[in-house]
Amino acid sequence: MKQYNILFLCTHNSARSVLGEALASTHPSGKFIGYSAGSTPGTSVNPIAADIAEELGMDRTLLRSKSWDEFGLVDSPKMDFIVTVCDNAAGEVCPFWPGQPATAHWGFPDPSQVQGTDLEKKAAFNEVKNGLKRRLDILASMPLEKLDSMSLKEIHSKA
Hints:
Number of strands: 4
Number of helices: 5
Largest sheet: 4 strands, parallel
Shape: globular
CATH class: Alpha Beta
Number of domains: 1
Order of helices and strands: EHEHEHEHH
CATH superfamily: Response regulator
CATH architecture: 3-Layer(aba) Sandwich
Radius of gyration: 14 Å
Helix content: 25-40%
């Protein structure tokens, strides 16, 4: 079975995009290899996002905040899909992506901005995780070899 590389982008690559990477990499369909990056990456991955990624089965030591420039290099993995998960990254000028991958914006509020108890913060992260999971489940059920950017964008309205 062919596996598809999917890159999740967000400005700081510390929460939403990391959750996307973990969900794709651990998706039960086995159809995806997840990656994440940001336009201005932070210094670390949000600890709540890292905890959730680990709960999903992702090796925590593989998680790091990285620049999207890493994925525009000649020897980088070729992406099949690129998904922005925050409004800032969706509006930024992205680097050239070799292979012309299908792109979409699946926007979610930043869970790291939630104020409140630890339970309230974790609930915000889980809400993003569940939304991304719904979209990945829909994506996995589609004929991936035939998808284009329009089809990928439609997943946002179905989830």
